[in-house]
Amino acid sequence: MNMNYTAEELAFRDEVRAFLDEKLPADIAAKVKGFRKMTKEDHQRWQKILVDQGWYASHWPEEYGGVKWTPVQKHIWDEESCAYGAPRTVPFGVNMVAPVIIKFGTEEQKQYYLPKILSGEHWWCQGYSEPGAGSDLASLKTRAVRDGDHYIVNGQKTWTTLGQHANMIFCLVRTNTEVKNQEGISFLLIDMNTPGISVRPIITLDGEHEVNEVFFQDVKVPVENLVGEEDKGWTYAKYLLTYERTGLAGIGMSKAALTHLKELASRRLKNGKPLLEDPTFGQRIAKVEIDLMAATISNLRIIAAVEGGGVPGAESSMLKVKGTEIRQAINDLARRAIGPYALPFIEEEMSLDYEGEFLSDENAAPLSAQYFNNRKLSIFGGSNEIQKNIVSKMILGL
Amino acid sequence: MDFTLSEEQQMLQDTVARLVRGEYSFEKRLEFSETELGFSEDFWKQLGELGLTAVPFPEELGGFGGGGVEIQSVMTELGRGLCLEPYMQSVVFGGGILSQAGNDAQKEKYLEGVASGELKVAAALQEPQAFYNQNEVETRAEKSGDGYTLSGRKAVVIGGHCADVFIVSARTSGDVRDADGISLFAIDANAEGVERRSYPTIDGAKGCDVFLDNVKVGADALLGEEGKAADVIEYQTGRAIAALCAEAVGCMEEANELTLEYLKQRKQFGVPIGKFQVLQHRMVDMMSELEQARSMAILAASYADAEQNDERRRTLAAAKSVINRAGHFISESGIQMHGGIGMTWEYSFAHYAKRLVMIGHQLGDDDFHLERYASLLEAS
Ligand SMILES: Cc1cc2nc3c(=O)[nH]c(=O)nc-3n(C[C@H](O)[C@H](O)[C@H](O)COP(=O)(O)OP(=O)(O)OC[C@H]3O[C@@H](n4cnc5c(N)ncnc54)[C@H](O)[C@@H]3O)c2cc1C
Ligand SMILES: Cc1cc2nc3c(=O)[nH]c(=O)nc-3n(C[C@H](O)[C@H](O)[C@H](O)COP(=O)(O)OP(=O)(O)OC[C@H]3O[C@@H](n4cnc5c(N)ncnc54)[C@H](O)[C@@H]3O)c2cc1C
């Protein structure tokens, strides 16, 4: 047992820091740290820098452009890149569909899709959820019927994150209605520019356009866009979900958010003294900081334990629940820290180009919106109730 | 004890309920919120015509001297409709301060307009760094000639964007956090030196910060005794808190009904999601939080117009603390149990959730009221 970084790990951390110091664009970091709006171009610019460094698809096998990072190295990267204000990787291509293609795709699919994910030519979105199929994903109804060399797809996906930017969508579709729900699902890769696809925005409670509805009307998809075998999509879908969940613990993001919160609380005053020094508020922060300390180690322990055995299984559900609760708690405190200034909703102040005077703290404007927006963390990627169901069934045997 | 409303109180509540149901559909509310004014001028006029803006005022002003319970009846229904009009700000809070501290001439000048709804008053008391402490006043009022010159800034005045008159607290003596030395002034919102920066709020309403730069007022602008306004502020803030509690209960009632309905109707895994025990229990907790909140709103209403003493102080602090906590819990739980739908702009639940959380940022958050209560604890 040794809870300190080894010399190699420290050297790796230095390397990461040097890279971030040199390559992370200041305007992007400022946006991330101040919770300002990121554009598609911001994401793409940062992606290119990471690809050039060889760190964008770090978890892919080396032959496709990955690097063999240990769990500790991954953790160091996560923590440092978040602390520096590097944007969260939009996960749908590199972290979601790619592992599925790598594990279950044909050689042609790997050769075709993986380089386009790296180059940014393909921006992927995730077409799992439907209006009637949320937690009960397997009940999905979007239909794909084989017609010669094509599937004809009809139906609707919803909650499609950043679908407005995407040119590719990976979809779970029903190819067989005669069997149990889980056994008639296939995994299809669909070009968003195919005739018959339309995208409609869904505005969330904070006024953002982040999610969409995607409609399919007689959409022709070539059969070579099927991943793996027909009707076996559920297996691939679940494989992807465990990947998704581990990322959702968001330890690095929580650490960065906590730092942000503490900076904010040392600027805001209560009874003429920094809020951070107020016993009541200080205890609120201490509680979540302690929780995060424990979660960081749990995260490392669990990932280390399954290393070699592949991705974590039901344990990732536990990490997702804890991790999202912590992030939400930090957002909750940030909103509280600005007191009555949680109310004003001044969109101009959320832009990095804003040159006027800030109403209160320069980082205050997005905080309430962010608090409300991040209620999603306990809903998506499998709601926290569903994660607990998984843990009680798979780990506890209940 | 008697927990039922009198016939008149019930009629009052029914009147407001009918009006809100008729005029304030969720879709209309979204439209009102988008306008420059930020609420419905027409609805505000109707509140005036029906005598509802006059409720707390005496007969000669068209009212019937309504107390905390009458205000509660109105505010609960306005809360159910997520109404955006500055009723609490102008009628309860502003009107309350003028009634308590104003001299005959000042009452004559303002109250008729407040009671009819033609004049909108906003109490601009809190300051940017004060973190809910209304006695933390840096704004200064210097004697000049036979009047005063005011300079300073007031923070997040909900309804202030459209106010005709601001009631401003300013220091005439003492240190920044002294209760002593605070004075109240009624100033024309368009007077020279008064600037407002207006903005929408995240819960769909509007407000402003008020900047006072050498604003000259006559001696007749002073409300009450110079330097002795802290008691008035505390007392009237208590009435406003009771009104906010009632509004919150209206919001929570609606939020809980929407959630319960959704649990029965939304199906996953072949059954209504309300069949899942973990959701049942959370809904039960939402209901009991609402009951706790309702009890405290009733208690707050009954103390709103009572004589000031520590029991009144404790009760109102307790009420706001329960309301803040319950509103937060109901908001987060409701969103969670709705899944993705609970996060969408086009569904009313999300707007109740936002309002409930933001009520927790008005007139004191959870910590503020718990600390206040703790400071007033009795040993036995
Ligand atoms: C901001 C956002 C972004 C998203 N992005 C994407 C995306 O890019 N692609 C995509 O495919 N999907 C996406 N989703 C969809 C997300 O995965 C679903 O919202 C989620 O699976 C929940 O489904 P639902 O919203 O239909 O809620 P429901 O499944 O209807 O759930 C409602 C409530 O019931 C509970 N519940 C359901 N079943 C059970 C049970 N058996 N036991 C106990 N409780 C239960 C849930 O936990 C929840 O509290 C996104 C969602 C959001 C909010
Ligand atoms: C100090 C004490 C005094 C008592 N006095 C009396 C007495 O005077 N007379 C008398 O007749 N009995 C008495 N009881 C017994 C008491 O009523 C039972 O303990 C109680 O009904 C629970 O039954 P159980 O202990 O068998 O627990 P179980 O019924 O086995 O319950 C175990 C756990 O499972 C939970 N559980 C059970 N069913 C469900 C469900 N459907 N959904 C969710 N959770 C569930 C329970 O809440 C509990 O947490 C007493 C018990 C105690 C501890």
Shape label of chain A: globular
Quickly give the CATH architecture of the largest domain in chain B: Up-down Bundle
Listing every helix as H and every strand as E from the N terminus to the C terminus, the arrangement of chain A reads: HHHHHHEEEEEEEEHHEEHHHH
The number of distinct structural domains of chain B comes to: 3
Distance between the termini of chain B: 24 Å
- Assign an overall shape of chain B: globular
- Tell me which ligands are bound: flavin-adenine dinucleotide
Q: From the alpha carbons, calculate the radius of gyration of chain A and give it in angstroms.
A: 22 Å
Radius of gyration of chain B, rounded?
21 Å
Per CATH, the superfamily of the largest domain in chain A is Butyryl-CoA Dehydrogenase, subunit A, domain 3
DSSP summary, beta strand count of chain A: 10
Structural class of chain B: alpha+beta
The CATH topology of the largest domain in chain A turns out to be Butyryl-CoA Dehydrogenase, subunit A, domain 3
| CATH homologous superfamily classification of the largest domain in chain B | Butyryl-CoA Dehydrogenase, subunit A, domain 3
Low-confidence stretches of chain A: none
Organism (chain A): Marinobacter zhanjiangensis
Cofactor (chain A): FAD
Protein name (chain A): Acyl-CoA dehydrogenase
Keywords (chain A): FAD, Flavoprotein, Oxidoreductase
Can you walk me through this structure?
Chain B: Residues 242-356 form the Acyl-CoA dehydrogenase/oxidase C-terminal domain. The complex is a heterodimer of chains A (398) and B (380). With 398 residues, chain A is of the alpha+beta class. Chain A has twelve helices and ten strands. Chain A has helices spanning 7-23, 26-33, 40-53, 71-83, 92-104, 107-119, 233-248, 251-267, 279-306, 315-337, 367-373, 384-394; strands spanning 124-127, 143-147, 150-158, 168-174, 185-191, 197-203, 209-222, 226-227, 269-270, 273-274. In chain A, the strands form three sheets. Chain A has a four-stranded mixed sheet. In chain A, a hairpin with a 2-residue loop joins strand 9 and strand 10. Chain A starts with 6 loop residues before the first helix and ends with a helix. Chain B has 380 residues and is an alpha+beta fold. Chain B contains eleven helices and ten strands. Chain B has a four-stranded mixed sheet with strand order 1-4-5-8, covered by helices on one side. In chain B, helix 7 packs antiparallel against helix 8 (277-304). The mean pLDDT of chain B is 97. The interface between A and B is large, with 50 and 50 residues.
